[in-house]
Design brief:
Layout (H helix, E strand, L loop, with lengths): L1 H22 L8 E7 L2 E7 L5 E10 L5 E8 L4 E2 L3 E2 L1 E2 L4 E9 L3 E10 L5 E9 L1
Antiparallel strand pairs: 1-2, 2-3, 3-8, 4-5, 4-6, 4-9, 7-8, 9-10
Protein name: YtkA-like
């Protein structure tokens, strides 16, 4: 009788370990950091471990200081487009957009829009949500 109980305990522990590894990304989740140029702006975009739900994106801008920065998520292959989220200033040339909702896993495009003395500009950054 002791063997089936031990076998069940081993199976339960193995299933729990696999589930934990899958839920926490196996420890290999990496931040997304990218850079692009649009007009007079050089834009750096960072997303720490993009995930389903609310995300925080950091934007750094070199060039003329923009008056407004927004980020808008789009998942073109599924026809999803969500309203732009305003980014707040986080210091000179640094902005942070919080609560950017990505409701499902897959390939997203995050459009960063800038308005300021250098004129309007947009940059699109790909983001993969697992």
């Amino acid at each position: 009788m002791r063997r089936p109980t031990l076998l069940i305990a081993v199976v339960v522990v193995a299933i729990a370990a696999v589930a934990a590894w899958l839920l926490w990304g196996g420890g290999n989740a990496k931040p997304t950091a990218q850079q692009a140029v649009s007009g007079p702006y050089t834009v750096r975009f960072a997303a720490d471990q993009p995930r389903i739900g609310g995300n925080t994106f950091a934007v750094e801008v070199d060039g003329p200081a923009p008056d407004t920065v927004t980020v808008a998520p789009v998942m073109a292959q599924m026809g999803h487009a969500f309203p732009a989220v305003p980014a707040t200033s986080d210091g000179p040339g640094r902005f942070r957009a919080t609560g950017v909702g990505l409701p499902m896993a897959g390939q997203w495009e995050i459009t960063v829009s800038l308005r300021g003395p250098g004129g309007p500009a947009q940059v699109v950054f790909p983001v993969l949500v697992k």
